[in-house]
Amino acid sequence: MYDGGKIIIGLIIFLALLTFPFYYNIGKVNAKPEPKIDTPEIQKLPVGERKCVESKEFMRGGHMQLLNEWRDSVVRDDKRIYVNSQGKKHNMSLQNECIRCHSNKKDFCDKCHNYMAVKPYCWTCHIEPKEKKS
Amino acid sequence: MRALTPFVMVIALVLLAFAGIKTANLHFLFGVVIPYAALGTFIIGVVYRVLNWGSSPVPFRIPTTCGQEKSLPWIKQNKIDNPSSSLGVIMRMAFEVLLFRSLFRNMKTELKSGKVVYGSEKWLWVAGLAFHWSFLIILIRHFRCFIENVPFVFKTIEGLDSFLQIGVPLFYITEATSGVLMRYFYKVHIVGVKILTMGLISFNPDPKILNEIGTIFYVHLFLISVLLAYFPFSKLMHMGGVFLSPTRNLANNNRMERHTNPWDYPVEVHTYEEYENDFRDKMKKAGIPVEKE
Fold first, then answer.
1. pLDDT tens digits, A103-121
2. Nearest to A61 among B167, B188, B204 (CB)
3. Residue A120 maps to a domain
4. Which one in A129, B77, B132, B161 has a CA-CA gap of 20 to 30 Å to B83?
């Protein structure tokens, strides 16, 4: 084999890069994120009425788009009332509507966002909910 | 027409994945078995082909020279396009791999009113560069699905790629189709996806999560699995091949070093001296001059 050493070193570097996630995660706890929905405000609601503005499945995939639409609607069109798929009316407001129930940013928002390494820019304008440091 | 066949093939693969998940419920096959098999094929195939190439003989230096070679001291050498040292070769390869220097020289030959005209043709180079770099960035961005506590470097690349800050989720400058559908239109349970990928890379996939992820994710995963498995059998191997191009990765030192062909066998020669010894008498008779009397 000509220049076999160089070729094999190249292959080893390639394999090392390729399998990087495999060994990078060895020995690390692979914990699933479990966002908590047990804030006092939610606890106060009767069990049957503990619902978000839309279904859990919709919110899980589409909350960011919903919030974006809310922002555009409020800031550009001054329309603040959201009628959900059940016909129920909601106030379009991150701080006054979402955070009213989900006051636990650290145990709710951040759980999945950190897990997925996502950094939404909500809090560059909005005021973060005050939380007791745990 | 040539683009149509592959397009139909891709559609067929998409439908196959759809049918597998929607009607046959083969979540485990498409979510665990096929990705592992594809990655295995990819690794073994690529290593096999590179070693196979590596075992072909390259006895002599055959670089294509694109500039002045090393010569007399007052003649300026083009050290990158006609390298004579390892450093020059490394520079040349870096330009080749990262910036496609050969393609930059791409020319268009035309006949204009009976004359041959050479024109610069940079579109292929520009498009090729954009395509390959986009591909690399997309690949690196996907690491967020495979790593816990994503390192700083990966976040930076993601930040740069989305710096236009259009839409939510943020629009990436580099995008590809099935991923776009997932990110913006058919939402998938992205955290579920990461739980699956993290399970896969720690060889401990969680079967419960499989049913919670949207079908479009399985289409995406199946397409990339097929791509990985197809890789070693195809021209995609130019990824490894570019490093093994003998016209680029050899130093042009033919006149400084002696390169011998290692499988040269001893050739039987019959020297003039021996010839004269054999035929001296006859040569003298015929009046032919000889060196030794």
1. 888 888 888 888 888 888 8
2. B188
3. yes
4. B132
Mutate to test the interface with B, among A2, A57, A66, A111 (most CBs of B within 10 A): A2
Q: How confident is the model at residue B165 (pLDDT cuts 50, 70, 90)?
A: low
pLDDT > 60? residue B174: no
- Contact yes or no for B158 and A60 at CB 8 A: no
- Amino acid sitting at position A44: K
Which pTM does this prediction carry? 0.77
Does B201 lie at the interface with A, CB-CB under 8 angstroms? Answer: yes
CB contact under 8 A, B146 and A18: no
Assigned domain for A30 exists: no
Does any CB of chain A come closer than 8 Å to the CB of residue B198? yes
Q: Which domain holds residue A115?
A: 36-124
Mutate to test the interface with B, among A118, A121, A124 (most CBs of B within 10 A): A118
Q: How many domains does chain A have?
A: 1
Interface contact B148, partner A, CB < 8 A:
yes
Q: Which long-range CB contacts under 8 A does B63-69 form with residues at least 24 apart? A: B63/B246, B63/B247, B63/B248, B63/B250, B63/B251, B63/B252, B64/B247, B64/B248, B65/B252, B66/B105, B69/B252, B69/B255
In a domain, A9, yes or no: no
**Residue B136, both tokens:** 């690399």
Residue A11 within a domain: no
Structure tokens at B159: 């930040």
Query: In this predicted complex, what is the ipTM?
Result: 0.76
B residues 78-97 closer than 8 Å to A (CB): none
Residues A57-96: pLDDT tens digits? 888 878 888 888 898 899 999 988 998 888 888 889 888 8
